[in-house]
Structure prediction request, 1351 residues.
Amino acid sequence: MMKFLITLLFLIPLCFCYNYWLMVNCFFILSFMFMMNYSFNNLYLNVSYLFGNDLLGYIFILLSFWICALMLLASEKIYKIDNYYYLFNLMVLLLMMSLFLVFSSMNLFIFYVFFEVSLIPTLILIMGWGYQPERIEAGIYLLFYTLLVSLPMMISIFYMYNCMGTMMLMFMNYQFNLLMYFCMNLVFFVKMPMFFIHLWLPKAHVEAPISGSMILAGVMLKLGGYGLFRLMSLFILVGLKINFIIVTISLVGGFFVSLICVYQSDMKSLVAYSSVAHMGMVLAGIMTLNIWGFWGSLVMMLAHGLCSSGLFCLVNIVYERIHSRSLYLNKGLLNMMPSLSFWWFMLCSSNMAAPPSLNLMGEIILLNSLVSYSSLSMILLMFLSFFSAVYSLYLFSYSQHGLYYSGMYSVYQGVFREYLLLLLHWLPLNFMIIKSELWVLWI
Amino acid sequence: MMKLLYSYFKLFLFFSIFLFIMGLKFMNKNYSMMIEYEVLTLNSSSMMMVILLDWMSLLFMSFVLFISSMVIYYSAEYMAEEKNLIRFILLVILFVLSMMLLIISPNMISILLGWDGLGLVSYCLVIYYQNMKSYNAGMLTALSNRIGDVAILMAIAWMMNFGSWNYIYYLEMMKGDSIMEMISYLIVLAAMTKSAQIPFSSWLPAAMAAPTPVSSLVHSSTLVTAGVYLLIRFNFSLTDNLLYLLLFVASMTMFMSGLAANFEYDLKKIIALSTLSQLGLMMSILALGSYKLTFFHLLVHALFKALLFMCAGNIIHNMMNCQDIRYMGNLMEKMPMTCTFFNICNLSLCGLPFLSGFFSKDLIVEFMSMNYLNIYIYIIMYISIGLTVSYSFRLSYYSLIGDFNFLSLNVVSELSMIMLKGMGGLILFVIFSGSLLEWVMFFEPIFICLPMVMKLMALIMIIMGMFIGYEVAKFKLGYSLKSLKFMTFSLFSSLMWNMPLISTLGVNYYPLFLGKVYTKIFDQGWHEYYGGKNLKLLAKFSQVSQSFSRSHLKIYFLLLILWVVFLLLNI
Amino acid sequence: MFKFYKILFLNILFFSTLIVISSYSWLSMWMGLEINLLSILPLMANPKNLYPSEAAMKYFITQTLASLILLFSILLSMNMKEFLPQNSSNMLILIINSSLFLKAGAAPFHAWFPEVIEGLNWENCLLMMTWQKIAPMMILIHNLNMFFYLSWIILISSILSGIYGLNQTSLRKILAYSSINHIAWMLSSMLNFKLIWLLYFNIYVILVFNLIMIFKYFNIYYMNQLNLIFNSNKLLNFLFMANFLSLGGLPPFLGFLPKWLTIMNLTSNQFYSLTLILIISTLITLFFYIRLTFSSFLLMKVESIFKSKIIGNFWFFSFNFISLAGLLTYAMIPNFF
Prediction:
């Protein structure tokens, strides 16, 4: 653990060096090196001080390494127009460090601290490199929705400490009451985000630069799921009584949000809302408290992290050419960038859980979990699944099909970097299913 | 690019022949083979990629590959002017590949690979041309198919109770079980969407927006037959009630589409509707209990329908992409070969004796007559057969003979050798495959014992249909417009009982409307009200409280003194 | 112009606070407070500007009143009981505490504080917000036994500071209200464990010092002056923002440390709702901190030609670095032993 942390630490001077691609390379090398650290069981490995990872943490760290590398790859424009790219590199690095520490901490409080820490580089990314003035509002929403519920969590963490006498995640063995349930988990619900408290997410996604959207969709949302994975064992008794409320909210909310998706005209906002819908399903899966739900949620989160990050990349690639995210202007892209259209299709279809994507695997496992939880959830799941196809296809066909915008005078084809970027999103997404046992060994 | 195309043609042809031989061998030895690749085992239920090779899948694959090899060959000329030919070819290949995957997998999860793949690739193919019509058609197709996908996903969720998704093991064993019943309802729903049975019929004619080779592939052997094939696999588990339901729906579909085809003027749509009616036929014979006959008709139908579409494509290609049969006529003179093929296919479709369609169709209706069922099924089955003949003859009369109605400046000719070769590869099978397959598939003949009238009923209906088709073909608008008396009826029938309207305008309004409502009420309404936006109350409060600190030091000190005095009084 | 008398009075100021801290009797404590007051007044005065004098006047009246009440209550207690016992009549303690809150500027008694701060220059603001808090707070530490009253003061301070601060555009007032908020935190930190107060106070001093150093250097007094001022130097920009986040108590920065300790201490003593309200109201202050730093957050591309000399200032950056990376350092140090 420490070796990666120290490596990250010593990457800081490299941020200020004028070679942007070196940084990208370093991230990729780090993520490949981290892949060597795979553990085939659920035990904590590589323990040093309060840090160490089991398979769950490992998966998320790997995801964040990967997404961070792709973030840098996607934000070439910042380098091109010299938009403080050294600061940008630093922010990505700090974000990576905080995510690394979040996912590898074995102590609840350290987890909490770095959970908060990861908020700040994200905030700076959104406010610093976003495009519209509305990014201020978005940043504020992001910060305060999270902080409003995460600070009470701090109290409950200390309460927990007083009850249990430890904050080490693996020694936790207690059952808490309803109040603690909400104090503790509400922050994860916000982070996921659960319907009703998801408002920060579309705003933050829409206003964020590509890197911000990617990391938000790719990893930050998964922090909520990760926290729930870790902590739900403390709330089994109370969870059995009231989890059905959360399941209902997230499934009904997922359905509503899917419909809201269909109503969007901003591509980024569509993708953002679609991640609300997907994460609603993940949350419902976790809340069933059965093993299938946990497995499925993890797989789904992993898949969603790659897939929706890839979709954001696509939106950004288009945005860099047309300077609009509106679905009314981005039409007929098939005629301009036919090869990119392929990636649009691949990622949109992955988003609607078409085989052989990991989304499908996650969705199947989650369906099993949720239908065995309550067969009534079938109705909502059917709608959810159907409308996920509706908005994915809507996004694909509305942007790719039809007559292209006549006000567009020049456009350039995709470059290798962009195709590589999309390939690196898509490849793990569709090939991990072949050995998907790797992602279910953690429990 | 052409090289790629031809190499795929050769590959497919080779595999088709190979698989056909293997299929015969497997059938002869009553042999089947399963290959399992385990993806994941969770709680001892394993998700597997399973490949099942038995005579049914092998034969079906061989037919699909044969037809698709011909279609690919055919499209070398049909799509020759296409700019993105490589995309087209790859999509077709992907399409065939997903069909293969669907055919060979007896596992609920691995079947999704083919099932969803078919839906998605067919979507790409339908929206291949960049116009609004194909866009709408594609959306309709994909979303109708998605309902089936969702049903299969739900069936997977229910199937977890068995501990495995290899449905083929559980079909007979668990028949009558409530879970199996649930699963079979869902599967029937899925099959109905894929095979465009009645509530979901509208996508099938709409999918004619795809390029004609694709239509030929989609509507003959691949996409639409996937549902039928799934039900053939599943038929052991279907309960009686479900079968009655299916029978009713399928027979209605058959009747509806036959009727609608009689009113249609679009060449491809007529053929599409005829496909729909044949699908209804297959479904109803499946519901009557003979999955083998279904499969028989499936294969035979695949052949002649593919060729029918290819002929139509050739005609359309020559007519400068005009599909309206009112513009056609007297094509017999201009393109004799194509029209011969066209006619053979049409007659085979009608079930004219000793063409391939006859063997399956005649057997089906006689099997139906042998069953003790109600008069409704009997009548509707025969009427549908009559309707099939009727629209086929109408089509022939409109397009093949009569006056030539197209532009006076035209080059309608039959110089398209590649297309003709592609078509010629199929024609022999259109003629012979019925008898061949019957000899191969039915080792022991089905015992049919019927009175003379009932035995000849099929022929009678065919002759009646011929007459009606001839009469219908002569309708002209210039006649005294007595048809206006039946305008509502004819509109209703020609619009497939309003199904396209219902499944587009009828269902897309409410989700969009609700999306708007939810956006307004939730995301920009109550969520903001109780979320971020209403915190301006705090700012208001702050402004109000600011006024307390305006030239206030006197009051402040006074209050302070009062506080101290108050405290002192309490000492 | 070098004013020696200012150095003199500054020394006396420090000295007087030390008297208060280390005094053994109530009278010398009071005396220290008076010397403190009298020595800061000349520091405030500026013959060329009217506002400091006004502020000094306000400050003088308030502090005198407070000292008076303190003296009065001391004498009263001497008369009544001949000593000031720890658990004497609640009302007496109440009076003493009230006077000390008045001196420190805790919330219901806070009204003088923003007014005075508004008239001062940044150095004096720093003095007012940091040094002047030591003496009353140290006395408070020795006289804490009315938790209920103290809790109310904490609650009112935290909530009022949040709400009042939301409407300000003057940086000095914002810092004043933030100071009131921090007083609430400091009071709650001294509830159970005095050392945390010490830590809190020290860190608060560091943070405020950093901020005021920046403001002083660029001579910023109002919010609208913040817009483009840091564009010459992105690092400074970044430090500015980070300092405010630190002041708001967000984790990677030093400001989180005392809040963490305070919350931990409060929760282990079952002050749950108090902590909750304290935290939530601190969020409001965090909101207006972040509002100040919008211009820094936005990384506007407009570069100013004016390059500030502060870029090369070693002490400035090292001090800032300590304040920002302090939490990590603080957490890391025990690991090395």
Q: What stands out?
A: Residues 2-439 of chain A form one domain. The longest strand of chain A covers residues 45-48. Chain A touches chain C at residues 49, 83-84, 87, 94, 98, 113-114, 116-117, 119-120, 123-124, 127-129, 135-136, 139-140, 143-144, 147-148, 151-152, 154-155, 158-159, 161-162 (CB under 8 Å). The beta strands of chain A are 45-48, 51-53.
